[in-house]
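Q: Convert this sequence to structure tokens.
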Amino acid sequence: MLWTITIVCLFLVGLIFRQAFQRDEREKAENDSGLAILEFGRAFPDEAIRDVVTTANGKTVFLRLHDGKAGCMNAHGLHYTCHLIEPGTVRVESAGPRRLSVTFANAAFEGGTFEFRNEQQAAEVSLWLLGSFRPMTAVAGDLAQKQPI
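A:
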């Protein structure tokens, strides 16, 4: 009887330590922007990343890309969902001084209200998202100038 109780107690202690270790690993993965850069690079190898901003809880990463486009990554456990934000597919609204409400037309489930560490990061990400309209208009303007009349 004493052996059974001892074995059950050791088993419970092992489960508790295992849960604590897995939680720490998940938190480290969520707050690691280097891992986010590697995952985005694997998903979109032709896109060069210029800047990265992580939300306050570390579960979402917004990326500024080299040609004025933007990217977004949401952490789901130890995995990320990555998507490239196409011009005209995002709607950004202010939801407070450090919060943005973002709606993606092509990935509605990825949108939501995101809180950043400070107001400057929220403003910078909103400019990136709204600036993702610029490459298409710049390309269209260049084509219009090159067209013979």
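The helical segments are 2-30, 33-43, 119-131, 134-146.
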